[in-house]
Design brief:
The chain is mainly alpha-helical. The chain has helices spanning 2-8, 23-26, 39-58, 64-70, 74-101, 122-132, 140-150, 158-178, 181-215, 219-224, 226-275; strands at 16-17, 133-134, 285-287, 290-292. Helices cover 68% and strands 3% of the residues. Helix 5 runs parallel beside helix 11 and helix 8 runs antiparallel to helix 11 (226-275).
Length: 293
């Protein structure tokens, strides 16, 4: 009997939830809206990962890679730290985008083609949205629709609803651009750190060469001590090399993430047009039994 009941009454799908999937919520951190990331939280993660990385590298056997990261001065450490910080932001943005995309798979309008969205049926759509998602205002698409429907009774034209949705889409586009501002700053700072390392390395090489000329009088002695000079040159070129490689990887990764978010925003706008604008009808308001146009 119980088996039959379980078959005939399948469990309802769990509502969508941002709080249950977003890593920022797991650690009790104030999250960014939409696909924005709390940069401070990502920075804490980057500090921990950077320390673990350099501790691990410290125990590796002698190699070119180990020497490049540990023996070339503090600019290497700073460039790696900013690179890991950028990667942490991009990974969390990717996860947030996956969460937001789930909302596009759930229609909020009843499948009945006779259904007309109006000020009288807006509450039904709002209830559908709250049944689909917990805290639906955390989802970009649902938040747009809720704001538009909450103003529906005060509007007189279908185009007014469309205008509100377009205004919200522009606001989300602006937030999308702002969410990459920190990464843009890091992409500027990482190559600069490489150039600073180059300057420090060249200064070290020139200083060692000047000391070498003062201490050694014969050519054989100078040739034997040239390793001190080449060490400074290694610092000069490897710091720039590492910084440029990190910046290149982050730039390509950020470009791909930015494109994916722009596609999502376009899909969100199309979703709102199909679900809301194309199904809405402004009905005349009645006063004292008479319709008022």
């Amino acid at each position: 009997m119980n088996d039959k009941e379980s078959v005939s009454n399948p469990p309802l799908p769990r509502p969508l939830s941002v709080t249950g999937q977003d890593p920022e919520y797991w650690f009790g951190v104030t999250p960014g809206t939409g696909t924005s990331v709390n940069s401070g939280f990502a920075g804490i993660i980057a500090v921990v990962l950077t320390i673990l990385l350099f501790v691990l590298i410290h125990f590796l056997p002698e190699s070119y890679f180990r020497a490049m990261l540990l023996d070339r001065g503090p600019t290497q450490h700073a460039a790696v730290f900013l690179g890991i910080w950028s990667a942490a932001i991009l990974l969390m943005k990717r996860r947030k985008l996956q969460i937001q995309r789930q909302s596009l798979q759930h229609p909020v309008i009843p499948e009945n083609y006779d259904f007309v969205l109006s000020s009288n049926t807006a509450d039904q759509v709002i209830r559908n949205i709250h049944a689909i998602a917990e805290s639906p205002d955390r989802f970009i698409v649902f938040n747009r629709i809720l704001i538009a429907l909450s103003n529906l009774k005060n509007l007189g034209r279908v185009g007014d609803v469309d205008d509100i949705l377009r205004s919200l889409a522009e606001r989300d586009e602006s937030s999308h651009q702002t969410s990459f501002a920190t990464l843009g700053g890091f992409l500027w700072a990482i190559p600069v750190l490489g150039f600073i390392g180059t300057v420090l390395g060249l200064a070290q090489a020139i200083g060692n060469f000047s000391s070498l000329l003062d201490e050694q009088a014969d050519v054989s002695g100078i040739v034997g001590e040239l390793k001190q000079v080449t060490g400074g040159l290694s610092t000069a070129f490897e710091t720039t090399l590492l910084a440029l490689v990190i910046a290149l990887v982050i730039q390509l990764w950020m470009t791909e993430q930015k494109k994916a978010e722009e596609v999502f925003l376009d899909d969100s706008q199309e979703y709102c047009l199909k679900q809301i604008v194309s199904r809405i009808r402004i009905l005349p308001t009645k006063f004292n039994g008479e319709s008022q146009d």
